[in-house]
Write a structure and sequence with these properties.
Shikimate/glucono_kinase; mainly alpha; P-loop_NTPase; 3 helices; Shikimate kinase
Length: 70
């Protein structure tokens, strides 16, 4: 999930969440630092940006059925 998508999901709104005013840049740096570890630990990678939870679940099931698990 991209940092932009993560912020969209948590409701990046400076009035509602004042501590998140610079959070997207911080989140991007954090995820960039962890990306290799996450990729190495993953058995299956499913893009989630712009997808509903049901679509993500369907992609996970499909990936498992097709044996595309690393």
């Amino acid at each position: 999930m991209s940092p932009h998508e993560a912020m969209r999901r948590v409701g990046h709104n400076a009035e509602r969440r004042p501590l998140l005013t610079e959070a997207e840049a911080g989140l991007e740096a954090l995820l960039r630092g962890r990306e290799d570890a996450y990729r190495d630990a993953a058995d299956l990678r499913v893009p989630t940006d712009g997808r509903t939870p049901a679509q993500v679940a369907q992609a996970v099931v499909q990936g498992l059925r097709e044996g595309s698990v690393a």
